[in-house]
Amino acid sequence: MRLTILGTGSARPVGDSAQSGMLVEAEGTVVLFDVGSGIASQVEAHLGAVKLSALFVGHFHADHWIDIGPLRYRFPWGEPAPKQLPVYLPPGGRDKLEHLAAAIAERPGFFEPAFAITEYESDQVFKVGSLTVTPHAVGHYVPAYSMDIVGPRGERVVYAGDMGPSDMVVDLARGAEVLILEATLEMGKTDDARRGHLDTPEAIDHVRRSGVAQGILVHYWSERRDIIRELCATSGVPVAPGVPGMVLEVEPGAVRVDAPPMPAWVPPQSPVLAPAVSTDGLD
Ligand SMILES: [Zn+2]
Ligand SMILES: [Zn+2]
């Protein structure tokens, strides 16, 4: 099974990465998990949307699904696509999509000819070609789901998505080869009481407790990449920050990581106006 990290950004745009999205491929099946801003272009750069076997969206924050709009334009107009893209959405997804269609397009039913929609429930098991995918509910500011992804030889990736601390995800990832976690916060104590995100030490601790062969941290501000890399390197845990274009070859019991070099972070022209300790806007 091959996993490609398409983006490592969170809700605030950064110049060197798309937002949330990753591809998982095995034996000709290619599934996209999340489609945040910039991911539709990354899908075109890697294989083209019409070659996707399915899309799973983990929750309805914009940085995880807003590029479903651009993605639709890769499919024919006016008539059903020769092969509709199976799209798996959280409960209420059809309604959300219809509202998005009303907001961005001149017609209702904008998405129907292109996509075959399924609203999933927590713990429901889906077979997509050679992959088996099971969403599990996690704690976030809105209903959100981690993805348990099993390849044809039993190799396994858990993509936790946005979430606060979760013993469930630690238990779920036991026996998996790879755990993909968010590392959104600078300090977990700045999160609100519901806990909807992790800081880097918390994410590293989840990887350590799960015992996976490789942890990858995503969903972070790019200027924090070097700090996150340092925290990972000194942790004694097999964990590293994801970078756009990173490829993981996942075999039963083994993971090979191939990460492209990243240029040094260049600060944006204008400073960020949000107070540094606020969790507002950290979807
Ligand atoms: Zn979110
Ligand atoms: Zn997010």
Looking at this protein, list some descriptive labels.
283 residues; alpha/beta; Metallo-beta-lactamase, Chain A; 8-stranded mixed β-sheet; 7-stranded mixed β-sheet; 7 helices; 27% strand; globular; binds zinc ion
Task: Describe what this molecule looks like in 3D.
The chain has 283 residues and is α/β, with parallel strands linked by helices. It is built from seven helices and 15 strands. It has helices spanning 39-46, 62-65, 68-72, 93-104, 167-173, 200-210, 225-233, and strands at residues 2-7, 21-26, 29-33, 54-56, 85-89, 115-119, 126-128, 131-138, 144-150, 156-159, 178-182, 214-218, 239-241, 247-251, 254-258. Strand 11 (178-182), helix 6 and strand 12 form a beta-alpha-beta unit. The protein starts with a strand and ends in a 25-residue tail after the last strand. The mean pLDDT is 94. Bound molecules: zinc ion (2 copies). One zinc ion (ZN) binds next to helix 2. One zinc ion (ZN) binds next to loops.
Give the number of DSSP strands. Answer: 15
Q: CATH topology, which one?
A: Metallo-beta-lactamase, Chain A
Please tell me the overall pLDDT.
Answer: 94
Assembly type of the shown chains? single chain
Shape: globular
Strand order of the largest sheet: 6-5-4-3-2-1-14-15
The termini sit apart by 29 Å
- The helix content is 10-25%
